[in-house]
Amino acid sequence: MGAQNGKDMLIKVDLTGDGQFRTLAGLRATRVSFNAETVDVTSLESSGGWRELLGGAGVKSASLSGSGVFRDDSTDERARQIFFDGETPEFQVIIPDFGTVEGPFLVTAIEYAGSHNGEATYELSLASAGQLTFTAL
Hints:
single chain; mainly beta; Pnp Oxidase, Chain A; 1 helix; elongated; Phgtail_TP901_1; TP901-1 family phage major tail protein
């Protein structure tokens, strides 16, 4: 995998529940993180005293974050609505030359900022809220 253009990493949301995804507009930076908890099954009988982990037993999670500027009324409004209503709609994350991750996410934080001589900006944080699917490119 060669160098990738950062603007090709997209976070999309299903605006109406019909399976049609729209890019959250105005994002300038995006980040995705995948995590898996470990389950330690080490005992006195573990070979050489080394820790043993039980594969596939921990809780898996993903988190998304992004920051940007306001550009699109419908996706800005939808992000706010998701947060204030506590919804967990379907999101898509397009990761260049890797694949697409899709599933429900909860908006865990929205931060707004601005200065008197600049644009209004926002930061968004999301946490996975159910099973995710991955489709390789």
